[in-house]
Amino acid sequence: MLAYALRRLLQFIPTILAITIIIFLLLNVLPGNAALMSAGDQDYSIDIHYIERMKKEWGLDKPVWLRYLIYLKDLSTGNLGLSFLRKEPVYDLIRARLWPTLKLAILAMTIAVSMGIPLGFYSALKQGRWLDTLTMMGAVSGVSMPQFWLGLLLMFFVSVKLQLLPPQGYGEGRFAHIILPAFTLGVGYMALLARATRAAVVEILTTDYIRTARSKGLSELLVNVRHVWRNTLILVLTTAGLQFGALMGQTVIVEKLFSWPGLGSLLVDSIFQRDIPVTQGCILTIIMVFLLVNLVVDLLYGCIDPRISYR
Amino acid sequence: MRNAIRKLMDRTNLVVGGLITLLIVAVAVFAPVLAPYHPIDDADLMVSDEPPNETFWFGTDNQGRDILSRVIYGARISLAVGLISQSFNTLIGIILGMTAGFFGKWWDDLVMGLTNIMLSIPSLIFALAVMALLGPGLLNVFFALGFTNWSYSCRITRSQVLSARSLDYVTAARALGYGRIRIMFTQILPNVIGPILVIATLGVAYAILLEASLSFLGLGVQPPTPSWGGMLSTAREQLFISPWISVFPGLAIFITVLGLNLLGDGLRDILDPHISKQK
Prior knowledge:
A: 13 helices
């Protein structure tokens, strides 16, 4: 188990390196040189000397590979650079925004897992019945629905019409403010999980070991609890981990919609302000959160499924 | 009996999905005929912010433009983005997956490495990064989305190639002296088409959602071009004054994506029951 965990941790490093390269290249080198554009303030953009001075100040006069290495060196010490616009360390900006986003993602995931998995499970056991049909219709709708639309409708009906919950903002962390954003964020994920769970259970129910379990006289309940459930969890965990990335991506939309002061809205604002270090930092942080979640998922596998750790 | 119901339901997916998709395509193609007004030019401030009524079925927006007409024309943008960007994705996926599976060695490692990295970057985040670089606009949306989602088709092509490589008919083709390229295109490609088609259908749906998201954030298709996501972005600002604006563009996205997803699910049930159920 320990060797397995170590191996997974080691695989983590090249992935992160590759991602930093891609993000760095994308935002710094390709035509357009966005970093250069943001260094030159609008009013001074004609002044060549000013641009030269800015380039030097921000280190943009060095060759790309050197800039990447410097970036990497800074990164290893947690230094994400300075914001072009606010001249503050990007690290501080991100740290202030990280918790609201995580809180939102965790609550959304909790809603999704606690409803999506049981629904999918139950649906698979009642294959072809109306409950199954209804759940799967709901699930495919949930996957197809643009979340910001759902959010808009909820905002209108729950907040504007019924005045039950605050329509937007962080509300200094009060719980009432997080309910709508978290639910909006969680619905698509819930639908995905329900579909994945159902598919997994349907597949497992046809396997030999379930037939064996039944034929040796175990009650349906015991078969479900002991054999189906455990194996479903492994399959569903994969989807849950992989799709968590989509959830992290969606936080951008949901945060923007509900004016939630998280990483996503920081990211969008920084793109509009052409504040490349902040954009870079936000993207990297979002991906890191996703990768860490998947690392945890992988380690969980090792715990649930003893076969995996020996591979 | 239960199996029969199941089968019928699978076909229902295909039929309903196919019909919805056809309908949306028809709306996009015949937009000039169907739309009662011009989506951009027919702006009349005298009738701004009108709720749905007999003249304007879906109401008007803050500039007095007919929302029904804008929603109808929006189908063109969404479908164009979906089809064009997914074609890019499919092409990249097929080429990379096929060559990786066929040539193997370092090339395979490189492609698979890249695929895994792409899978670990959330699509929307990657698209945002590209839009940050290129700036907003329809053409850039094609680019951003066309390079975002190729990993699924790449992986499936590669795995199909790997499993087909050792099959008898490929060995036979090799024994006949067919070159690698010829085998790839004449022997292996036809067998990959099924799963690729499924992934592409679901991919079009996903691209439409992503475009709507980008446009909603203001980084995608720019006003006054009628894109569903962009219309919802205005709708958010006007939620208190004219809430009906937020209903119809969103409904349009929902129905289109739902149709494509059902079609994709239906195709999968027919073509290949073994592809994993999630995308």
